[in-house]
UniProtKB/TrEMBL annotation:
GO terms for biological process: G protein-coupled receptor signaling pathway; sensory perception of smell. The chain crosses the membrane at residues 24-45, 57-76, 96-118, 138-160, 201-223, 235-256, 268-287. This is Olfactory receptor. It comes from the Eukaryota. One of its GO terms (cellular component) is membrane. It comes from Mus musculus. GO terms for molecular function: G protein-coupled receptor activity; olfactory receptor activity. Its main location: membrane. The keyword tRNA-binding does not apply. It holds the Pfam family 7tm_4.
Length: 310
């Protein structure tokens, strides 16, 4: 692959150029990012330290919170810093790294959500064989495959982008580096590359969303044979997962299934899935899950007792 890159620095226009509005952006992103870190790290610590949360569902929840934390971290800290500056700039190399990590952890979250749907399907539809099918070893292998698949997806994106010559201008009308805004800096026809990128990201988002929704339809249909208490518990868990899926995939499908097309609202929609969903996930999974809430209460009590002994 031959590279012809003259652009060494990229200017990010951000969400606004108005100084007073930049302060609002700073406050919102800082608040959301701190909430994301607090919520997801609390889930990570709780799942790791609680013996009651040893089932495969919470094993996958651990990795969902980890991917949420990393996914938000690829965008939020730089946006927070950039909102304090008159002109935000990023080197071309850092821009490419941000694109890679953003798509890596975004794709990882998609795969983890699919694994969580598979886990719920087996737990509800094959309860007698659940522990055999979803053994610790199998879950570990599935997560490893998710990591490798995410890496392949991101590398394909980067290689496709770097096959183009970038010779200016060097201004991106976005608050972080993403592929479609970056391709506007290329000084050659990008239609084919854009089509390939859409067939990559767009297909992953759309197909995964359809697979997930279909799997939950099957799960919900199978609940008719369960007891009232079993239906209530399974329904609560599935509704939490469905809410997460819709909130995450809706904006992603809107952004990544349009070749060579951008709208003014794209930046606002990107906010929702880049920092909004990672904040909402821990709230949804804790507020709607009694086992997680109980484990957090026990963890908090242990912390108080240990502090009192000191």
């Amino acid at each position: 692959m031959q590279l012809n890159i003259n652009v060494t620095e990229v200017i990010l226009l951000g969400l606004t150029q108005d100084p007073s509005r930049k302060n609002i952006v700073f406050a919102i992103f800082l608040l959301f990012y701190m909430g994301t870190l607090l919520g997801n790290l609390l889930i990570i610590v709780t799942v790791k330290t609680s013996q009651a949360l040893g089932s495969p569902m919470y094993f996958f929840l651990f990795y969902l919170s980890l991917s949420d934390t990393c996914f938000s971290t690829t965008v939020a800290p730089r946006t927070i810093v950039d909102s304090l500056q008159k002109e935000a700039s990023i080197s071309f190399t850092e821009c490419i790294i941000q694109i890679f990590t953003f798509h890596f952890f975004g794709c990882l979250e998609i795969f983890i959500l699919i694994l969580m749907a598979v886990d719920r399907y087996v737990a509800i539809c094959k309860p007698l064989h659940y522990m055999t099918i979803m053994s610790r070893r199998v879950c570990g292998v599935l997560v490893a495959i998710a990591w490798m698949g995410s890496c392949v997806h991101s590398l394909v994106q980067i290689f496709l982008a770097l096959s183009l010559p970038f010779c200016g201008p060097n201004v991106i009308d976005h608050y972080f580096c993403d592929l479609q805004p970056l391709l506007k800096l290329a000084c050659s026809d990008t239609y084919l590359i854009n089509l390939l990128l859409v067939s990559n990201s767009g297909a992953i988002c759309t197909v995964s969303f359809l697979v997930l929704m279909f799997s939950y339809v099957i799960i919900l249909h199978s609940l008719r044979n369960h007891s009232a208490e079993g239906r209530r518990k399974a329904l609560s868990t599935c509704i939490s997962h469905i809410i997460v899926v819709i909130l995450f995939f809706g904006p992603c499908i809107f952004i990544y299934t349009r070749p060579a097309t951008t709208f003014p609202m794209d930046k606002m929609i990107s906010i929702f899935y880049s920092i909004g969903t990672p904040l909402l996930n821990p709230l949804i999974y804790t507020l709607r899950n009694a086992e997680v809430k109980n484990a957090m209460k026990k963890l908090w009590r242990k912390k108080i007792v240990s502090d009192d002994k000191k």
